[in-house]
User: Which sequence fits this backbone?
């Protein structure tokens, strides 16, 4: 042990978590630095998906709760750099305006996709209140537009996160932060019906699923095959669907509880190429942050 300590120069620091992650990726997948330079996602989700799918070109994605054409988008780079097509789905009218006025080519669908169930598993198809949040442009709260979601009533708080990361904010609290709230009564629709309208194929290469706690509702109605999926902090019901009903494999976890799931076929192909699914995303760090 003493010899080992003497071998480390005094004052030197070990590699940062970001450097360790990038080096481990480099060993298995080559230099990923160019991909980080073009990433729009929050934690490098599209980079992990690309390498899981052997840098596939011309794939098809579904961006569920797409929110913004570029800001923290998991699919913008796939579309622009690798020629992917896809469906971008969101219930917020401001999202529809942003996608319409952008150069994104995905088929945007304004819809509240995913039918909730009542007692006994009976589908609930009555109108549901969807709260749309509109923070000031370029403010520190701009990310909160992504918290637009279903609420029980117009007076209910907006909540997000699970476990220790669970937070809630009342409508007056939102207004004090200059975040406008609009409420729309929308009829929920099955995700496959929405995808049929978008002419989506029966096999989806990548699905980005971040619906602020409603991921299970969407998964229950999804009949299409999915090769790769990212999902934020799935609950026990969502994990059961992915593992037992869809026979998908939990590959790894990004920062803040975002998870990557892959079909068994994708994992088999990855292993045959000498890849390692557990290295596709970092555990507990933000790989896009500048190394300290």
Assistant:
């Amino acid at each position: 042990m003493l010899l080992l300590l003497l071998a480390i120069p005094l004052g030197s620091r070990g590699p940062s978590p970001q450097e360790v992650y990038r080096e481990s990726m480099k060993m298995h997948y080559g230099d990923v630095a160019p991909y980080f330079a073009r990433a729009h996602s929050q934690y490098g989700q599209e980079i992990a998906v690309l390498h899981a799918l052997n840098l596939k070109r011309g794939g098809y994605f579904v961006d569920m709760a797409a929110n913004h054409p570029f800001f923290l988008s998991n699919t913008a780079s796939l579309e622009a750099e690798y020629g992917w097509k896809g469906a971008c789905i969101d219930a917020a009218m401001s999202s529809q305006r942003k996608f319409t006025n952008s150069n994104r080519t995905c088929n945007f669908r304004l819809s509240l996709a995913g039918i909730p169930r009542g007692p006994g598993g009976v589908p609930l198809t009555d109108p549901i209140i969807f709260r749309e949040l509109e923070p000031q442009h370029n403010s520190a709260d701009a990310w909160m537009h992504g918290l637009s979601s279903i609420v029980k009533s117009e007076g209910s708080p907006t909540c997000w996160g699970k476990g220790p990361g669970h937070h809630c904010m009342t409508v007056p609290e939102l207004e004090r932060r200059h975040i406008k709230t609009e409420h729309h009564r929308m009829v929920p629709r099955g995700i496959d019906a929405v995808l049929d309208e978008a002419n989506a194929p029966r096999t989806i290469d990548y699905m980005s699923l971040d619906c602020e706690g409603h991921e299970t509702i969407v998964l229950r109605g999804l009949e299409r095959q999915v090769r790769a999926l990212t999902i934020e902090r799935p609950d026990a019901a969502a994990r059961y669907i992915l593992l037992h009903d869809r026979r998908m494999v939990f590959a790894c976890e990004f920062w803040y509880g975002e998870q990557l799931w892959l079909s068994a076929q994708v994992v088999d192909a990855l292993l045959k190429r000498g890849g390692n699914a557990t290295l596709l995303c970092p555990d507990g760090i933000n790989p896009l942050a500048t190394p300290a």
